[in-house]
Design brief:
The chain is of the alpha+beta class. The protein has three domains: 133 residues, no CATH class; 78 residues, Immunoglobulin-like, CATH 2.60.40; 180 residues, Endonuclease, Chain A, CATH 3.30.870.10. It has an eight-stranded mixed sheet, with helices on both faces. Strands 3-4-1-2-9-6-5 form a seven-stranded mixed sheet, with helices on one face. The longest helix is centred in the C-terminal third of the chain and has 21 residues. The N and C termini lie far apart (66 Å).
């Protein structure tokens, strides 16, 4: 069997064994190293005859069968039997959260590249030992050309002889038809029911050797194709990094035949959207002193989000920069928020009528070099600044589009992230919509607006 050990800074973080693969060179000793954030990650790979001489420390052991589409299955086509030796203490966690998310992602990418195992999907396998034994059966599945309700199965590889197939056809997770049949070669499974997903299981005698659950086929694909038309790379002043501003155009494309929707499909789709809004994990970040660059990465990630037309920011002190490195900070923030040049940016801040014009002029001076640099490259960031004399306290980012609203609450102003202990919290979509509508109706009204200007 093949043995793969992964190390981060010479500490073992994951071990994988792959049974079978008898054509693997027995004398091969492979080592791959990659420098990542905080150190280096290493793969050491070779052949062993069995597990008897291996030292494996663990708290619990779990064994079972992994379908081909299971998150823990490292093989793209095979199903496998597996055993996992579990270590309960996870050193990369602190209070249930990953200490260094960026490092963890880089480690995960390295492991997936060399083993197929996606640690980002199963993060608690970190520090564990897993043994995989592929069942050596590979089945190709396609819709029938004559009737797209039927499915053709082609046995590409099978070392188990005669099989029994159980197929369950489902419509929105409700089983509408099922078939049980003996299989000795390629087959066609027919049904007169309408379905949009199916479960397949193959047994060799009483042993499950192949399974694929929630199999679905795309009869029509709707793509909002985005093409980057302009890029401008700029260095940040206060953070040691650069950012690339991008402008793109999008065009809807339909691949395949257009599928007519009906009220029932729409009903289930809306239900799934509501379910997702109720169950999806919201982003929560807690930043401490000295984490300015990490805050910049978070704001860049938010500003890069596709599928929205407007970004609204409510920060009473947005144009204020009378702190250490304030001018460089506010210049960095403008560059980061301008990341997606297609987004219309509307910045709402608090001021006093008697001096708001002077303060905005000073603010413009702080970012003038950036604005001039972009204009020379035929790029005009779409910013609108709205000053209001209505007092507000909390800070928010809203991404607004036809598909809905994404909202974040900030624990401090943009100009002081990294100087304070503060949070960035993604709000529930319903709560975010309520906050946004209230701020718009109470603050952005003619009697309170004392300034409304773009960048010039």
């Amino acid at each position: 069997m093949i043995k793969q050990q992964f190390f981060y800074n010479e500490n073992e973080i994951l071990r994988l064994y792959h049974k079978g693969f008898d054509d693997y060179p027995k004398n091969r000793m492979l080592e791959q190293k990659e420098d990542i954030t905080g150190g280096s990650v290493i793969l050491r790979e070779g052949w062993i005859d069995n597990l008897e001489s291996e030292v494996i420390s663990y708290d619990h052991k779990v064994s079972g069968f992994l379908p081909s589409n299971d998150d823990k299955n490292p093989y793209m086509t095979y199903c496998c039997d597996y055993t996992e030796f579990i270590t309960m203490h996870k050193k990369f966690l602190e209070d249930g959260r990953i200490q260094n998310p960026k490092t963890f992602r880089e480690i995960s990418d390295f492991i997936k590249k060399w083993s197929g195992f996606d640690l980002k999907k199963v993060p608690f396998s970190y520090h564990n030992v897993l043994v995989f034994a592929p069942t050596e059966i590979y089945i190709e599945m396609k819709l029938s050309k004559e009737n797209d309700q039927d499915i053709n199965l082609k046995i590409i590889e099978n070392k188990h002889g005669d099989l029994t197939c159980i197929a369950k056809f489902k419509q929105n997770n409700i089983i509408v038809d099922s078939k049980v049949m003996a299989v000795s070669g390629d087959i066609q499974i027919e049904t007169d029911k309408t379905w949009n997903s199916m479960d397949l299981e193959f047994f060799a005698k009483d042993r499950l050797v192949y399974a694929y659950y929630d199999l679905s086929f795309m009869k029509s694909i709707h793509i909002d194709m985005a093409m980057t038309t302009k890029q401008v790379k700029m260095s940040l002043q206060h953070a040691k990094k650069s950012i690339t501003l991008e402008q793109s155009v999008s065009e809807p494309i339909i691949v395949g035949e257009r599928v007519n929707s009906n009220d029932l499909n729409s009903y289930y789709y809306q239900e799934q959207l509501l379910k997702r809004s109720l169950t999806i994990g919201k982003r929560f970040e807690f930043l401490t002193k000295g984490q300015y660059e990490y805050a910049i990465e978070i704001f860049e990630s938010i500003a890069s989000t596709r599928g929205y037309q407007e970004m609204w920011i409510f920060d009473p002190y947005f144009i204020t920069y009378n702190i250490s490195g304030g001018m460089a900070r506010i210049d960095d923030i403008i560059k980061v928020l301008a990341k997606n040049l297609n987004l219309k940016k509307k910045i709402v801040f608090e001021g006093k009528k008697e001096d708001v014009q002077d303060k905005f002029i000073e603010f413009q001076k702080a970012i003038q070099n950036t604005v001039t640099y972009l204009k020379k490259r035929d790029v005009t960031p779409d910013f609108e600044f709205i000053g209001t004399d209505e007092h507000f306290h909390d800070r928010f980012i809203f991404l607004k589009g036809e598909s809905g609203l994404k909202a974040f609450q900030l624990g401090t102003s943009f100009n002081s992230f990294g100087d304070n202990y503060s949070t960035i919290i993604e709000l529930d979509s319903f709560d975010g919509k309520k906050v946004f509508q209230t701020l718009i109706s109470d603050i952005i009204i003619p009697e309170h607006i004392i300034l409304q200007k773009g960048l010039s």
